[in-house]
Amino acid sequence: MSADVDALEFIKSCESGVLQSDLWKALKIDSRKCSRIVAKLMKENLITRQLESIDGIRTYRLCYADKSNSKRFKSLMPVLIFEPCAGCIEECEPEHCAKLSEWIFSIVIGKEGTITAEDQPEDYGR
Amino acid sequence: MTIVEGTIHKAYIMKLVGDEGVRIVENIPEDEITDEHLAELTGISLNTVRRTLYLLYEHRLAIYRRKRDPDSGWLTYLWQLCPENFDKALESEAKRLLRNLEERLTYEKNNIFYACTEGCARFIFDEASEANFICPFCQGSLEYMENAKVVETIEKQKKELIHSL
Fold it and tell me: I need a labelling partner for B127 at 20 to 30 A (CA). Which of A103, B25, B111, B163 fits?
């Protein structure tokens, strides 16, 4: 495994992220190499970096980006169905789109629990 | 999936390229791979593999490099996934969905709806009244349908989408 992958795996394994100053020690690499790896992982949006001060020494807390990103876009899949507009190549008519209707209704049903599937007209998009 | 991680990312891939596409993506290594090799690995037809790869390419989730065989002169396409572009792609999907939800919200707020009691379809007031409140599909009756929860849901989804951008 390359040092990049090792670093990413290590950051990923730390629930609340890891200090950059601890990362190079844990990976047994020098701090300059660690900076290069961190820069590369950041460029690929795989990790996030936040300035932190430990005993007056400035360092960075590195967090695996997937966690925050998954949460960031959770509104695209609030229920089990992924939002229907992604990759859709049909003529777009949001007012009458049956797939969009189905998705909206599945959220209403999922969150309220008061509307049953039978309440939903098949071609609700009309 | 080795390269693509996270529930939303996986669901997005599934939405774009379907079941077979997911199997193809799961078999793309971190390094480059040819479409022929992917077809061999997955047992999925070369056409489907190519269609999937081009779909991913259109969404900037995969890239290719062409390599010419010096002996035969044939071109080989070497493919690679771009996991770093997933968030950008999701961002543009979120923007698109937001625009569509805005249009839909206006429609929901500006209309009164009547639905077939048999579940055939829903109609706006003008359509329902023109049909004498009788469903044109099953001849059942059309009754007033409350859409407050739909409006509320769209507004909430909109807020969450704006927050994610």
Answer: A103
Identify the contact set of chain B against chain A, taking CB-CB distances under 8 A.
5-9, 11-12, 14-16, 55, 59, 83-84, 86-87, 90, 93-94, 96-97, 99-101, 103-104, 107, 115-116, 119-123, 149-150, 153-154, 157, 160-161, 163-164
- How far apart are the C-alpha atoms of B89 and B150, rounded to whole Å? 27
CB contact under 8 A, B153 and A69: no
pTM of the model: 0.68
Q: List pLDDT tens digits, range B93-123.
A: 999 999 999 999 999 999 999 999 888 888 9
B16 neighbourhood in chain A, CB within 8 Å: 86-87
Residues of A with Cβ-Cβ distance to B116 under 8 angstroms: 121
| Three-state secondary structure call for residue B79 | strand
Environment class of A70 (CB within 10 Å of its CB; exposed 0-12, middle 13-18, buried 19+): middle
From B138, B110, B140, select the one nearest B126 (Cα to Cα): B110
Structure ipTM over 0.95, yes or no:
no
Residue B116 bridge partners (DSSP): B142
